Amino acid sequence: MTSTQVVRATCPHDCPDTCALLVTVEDGVATAVKGDPDHPTTAGVLCTKVSRYTERTYHEERLLYPLRRVGKKGEGKFERISWDEALDTIASRLGSIAARDPQAILPYSYCGTMGLVQGESMSARFFHQLGASLLDRTICATAGFTGYKYTIGATIGTDLEQFQNAKLILIWGGNPIASNLHFWTRAQEAKRRGAKLIAIDPYRSLTAEKCHQHIALLPGTDAALALGLMHVLIAEDLLDHDYIARYTVGFEELKQRVAEWTPERTAETCGITVAEVVELARLYGGMAKAGEPVAIRTNYGVQRVHGGGMAVRNLTCLPALVGAWRHAAGGVQLSASGGFPTNKGALQRPDLLAKQPRTINMTTIGDDLLRPGSAEFGPAVEAVIVYNANPLAIAPDSSKVMAGFAREDLFTVVLEHFQTDTVDYADIVLPATTQLEHVDAHSAYGHLYMMANNAAIAPLGEAKPNTEVFRLLAARMGFTDPCFKDSDDELAAMAFNRQDARAIHFDWDALKQKGWQKLNMPDAPFAEGGFPTPSGKCEFYSASMAADGLDPLPAYIAPYESVASNPELAQRYPLAMISPPARNFLNSTFVNVKSLRAAEGEPHLDIHPDDSAARGISDGEMVRIFNDRGSFIAKARVTDKARAGLVVGLSVWWKKLARDGKNANEVTSQRLTDMGRAPTFYDTLVEVERVAT
Ligand code: SF4
């Protein structure tokens, strides 16, 4: 007789939606993964990627056993070894490096899972006890986070469950159809109820096509647009004076600053029309003044440029100027993560550090792996332990990253599900469990529910959870602190058990049974101010920024690479390139799932008809995209979805699955944003030429 059960789980991927899953398990085999119809934000719907999760879990190329490299680095040739041999080898190598200087060991991880347990818990404890270099996890969000927090104090904003009540939604720097599906559902409902949707994006994405209006500004000029909007709001008195007086600081200084951002200057900087600037400000301010909820959903596209932190800061000032926060469906959302009482101290145990080690920025891994030891840098990196990440595909300036990982003297361990581009450079590969095979607890960054993930099936092959790998390594390294014996359930029970002013009632067993629990947050978090900034107000003027050596007022910081900021470079490389997420991939995850890769076809580059004609490129021809950092090949799609002067290469392809073994990160740079030490993926000039096929 068949035994069938349905297990409550959570999508672990780097997506704001953090969906509640129902996994059907028949005789120990997961046969279906569906969205939980009762979870208020998932509402029974999953994206295409995760609705095919069993295809990924039981993929014929899953890594099921520990492996040791037998070919050259990058060749991807391995032989099977036992767990004992793998762990003994790793412990011995790390032990001898640590005896000289543990800072020569670098963990490299990001959001391959967003789980608080399989992400940074036992792994962080292990590296803290070891004294390894710390990793600055900047690759995605820290520029925007920093600008947002300087302005309103925390990554808190409009609740996802309110957006359907908004009357105007600015979708600023994101493509939610591809990467924030459950927000898009709400935005569509708002549209049905009469709301106007406006996309602000250099590219006419799937989402922009479905909005009432699309403002296609130049990449990296969002900060200028926000300044111009503030200029018009103030000049035309489309303001909430009472809200400004009670709940903001620095209005007079802001007024002076934005005076110079006339609609004409704004339009010229952004490459749009004066009317687009003025009409958007009038619509936004006018509707707010009429008492209508006006909302902004911004996303991380805005902040992947030189002035990315400031861009998010500037647009985060807008709701306070017009009093949009008074409404539950007004305000702005970048991320909801700041509402969660996550107990990182208990999970990660920074108190295990004997002394403060150096910090290496994951964005500059290319340069840092090639850096010799020095008094300034510390020891050269001798070992990298990669988990929940694929730096060969996702880190900028890829040829340097590859050269670093190709170092014969670098000891590299990778915990993975599949033989990714990074695995090809590993000395030891450890098979990791997927979300269906382990326990985890999750916060979210697009909604306000704490989430539980139960293990639905037994680990495939000899795969182990990350936590177990680091437990076993800790034992081999002789780490005796009892925290290295905590089980995954014990770790999950610490996830939200803070004991400070943000303490909540949190019962892990109850969460496991129910699957989710909403945080107790007010519907309109800043209706009466209460911003968690130093002043308690929305800070148009930020003394913290001044103290940190930054301009304390909203400003425009030009891209590193643009016609306006670097005309000499633009002569050689006249096209701006952005590389936003493809609909069927999630960063570099899912690229090896055949049905999803088939839906994407092959790497392509969207190019405007004027730009293709000037280069003699026809639709469907292969093109080489290049600059001083490198080049990659893609198939041209001639389309006015990309504005003239812009090319768009959807990402992030595995290099080995592209015909030239390269991807868009060959041409992106390791330069950092104005704040948050984050990457500038969308601050890239290139040239494009036809290649013979
Ligand atoms: S990737 Fe996002 S939309 Fe898709 S199932 Fe996961 S959380 Fe939901």
Fold blueprint:
Elements: E1 4-10, E2 20-26, E3 29-35, H1 48-51, H2 53-57, E4 67-69, E5 78-80, H3 83-100, E6 105-109, H4 122-130, E7 134-136, H5 142-152, E8 168-172, H6 176-179, H7 181-192, E9 196-200, H8 206-210, E10 213-215, H9 222-235, H10 241-247, E11 248-249, H11 251-259, H12 263-270, H13 274-289, E12 294-298, H14 308-322, E13 331-333, H15 344-348, E14 359-361, H16 365-369, E15 383-387, H17 391-394, H18 398-405, E16 411-416, E17 428-431, E18 440-442, E19 449-453, H19 466-476, H20 488-494, H21 508-514, E20 516-518, E21 538-539, H22 543-547, H23 567-572, E22 575-578, H24 594-600, E23 604-607, H25 609-614, E24 622-627, E25 630-638, E26 646-648, E27 684-690
Helix pairs in contact: 3-19, 5-14, 9-12, 9-13, 9-14, 12-13
The structure holds iron/sulfur cluster.
Iron/sulfur cluster (SF4) binds at residues 11, 13, 15, 17-19, 46-47, 49-50, 181, 586.
